[in-house]
Request: fold
Amino acid sequence: MTGKFITFEGSEGSGKSTQAALVLDYLKSKKMPVTLLREPGGVKISENIRKLLLDVNNTGMGDECETLLYMAARAQMVKEVLEPQLKKGQIILCDRFLDSTIAYQGYGNGIDIKTIEQLGLFATKGLSPDLTVLFDIPPEKGLSRAGDKKDRIESRSLEYHKRVRHGYLDLSKQYPARIKVIKVDADKEEIFKKVKLYIDALLGL
Ligand code: TMP
Reply:
């Protein structure tokens, strides 16, 4: 693999998508070969799976089905874009990846973490980010930013979202070299300055 793989993680309303877009603009301004993806989604089949996952009418979806659908969306995105583009030397930015499944389905829903890791290996072909920026915000604050029209996952209880946050912070302690935590306590320009330091260090800018 010659490219670089950077993921953006965090709870609802953490501003990670805004930061991912700022990084995309920044790297484009440097004429770097960069692509921004999101999960679940990024390619047509995975975007269709996203609709199933986030549809509030799918009240009966079991935790196992939910986990497998996130993995299925991931497997398709990896096969269609991530693996081939990394091989070509592209810098791939991804708004969420496997850490999301560990935090939301593992810590949040109680699906066995080892099982998620095994399914993750299958779906990702063992591809793991070179850098993960984790945006940390208390769920009370983050959810209020999500607005009134909440999707199937956002609609879950505050307790659920607290477990997700705890999961992310646990992961950052487990993988301190890869996962860099940024507290969401300033405006987006200030936060971006911090993100840029990690991006520059990884890419030698
Ligand atoms: P987004 O709102 O950041 O686009 O993400 C979509 C929702 O899907 C968000 O509520 C987090 C959730 N999610 C999981 O529960 N597990 C996963 O593996 C991924 C990628 C997202």
User: Anything to note?
Assistant: The first strand starts at residue 4 and ends at 10. The pocket of thymidine-5'-phosphate is lined by residues 12, 38-40, 70, 96, 100-101, 104-105, 153-154 (CB under 6 Å).
